Amino acid sequence: MHRPVVGIIGNSYLINDQYPAHAGGSMNSEAVAEVSGCLPMVIPSDPRLVDVAELLEVCDGFLLTGGRPNVHPEEYGEPETPAHGAFDRARDAVALPLVRACVERGQPVMGVCRGFQEVNVAMGGTLYPEIRDLPGRMNHRMPPDGTLEEKFALRHKVRFSDGGPFHRLMGAPEVMTNTLHGQGIKTPGARIVIDGWAPDDTPEALFVRDAPGFTLSVQWHPEWNAAQDPVSRPLFAAFGDAVRDFARARRRGPARALSA
After folding, report:
1. How many domains, in total, are found in the chain?
2. What is the pLDDT of residue 120?
């Protein structure tokens, strides 16, 4: 029996500033394979090349990764400004409808960093273009210098709702996480439940209320050191369990899968 397939949303890059490529960070694939126990498959995030309906049939679950480009503010009804930074409209066109379809079907989806923001926008929420410019907020961006270990080092606590899904999953009311993002949630979308916060009250963990499947998503980067980190490991393990459950239900028949 083959492993269930997790589609990993890729990002667009120019190699040597010339050669266009779709790629995903190896640590995302490693976390999916080694901790979730699933087969990682990087998806080219371009609606000219992939169709959401086909992706839903090929993959059993989805990991929405981080990425330098931001969700375009037109997706949540606001004008573009220089503070919003670079964009990837092709990824927006794949990821946002994919989130909504997964929520409706009960198909597992986990958002990380930009992916966390995509889940919120897909459900009707909005984003701040730059968290560090807000009064009382800390700088959540990746340090500009240093090694990968230094950039992904644990930098602040995240506190969870008492008795909420993240509290239950982690077995602790608060944990230490890394932080490598510029934007953040402004208003939660319909059915979005914020379940974790940074010390400056920036939303850090969410789920979709009454979703029939796995929707836990985080603003930090749990793919870093996922096999050893006591916070990352239970998150990716729970995601893998949900993907396996969905895949088993789908093999038993479409009616059972859709209600999984």
Report:
1. 1
2. 98
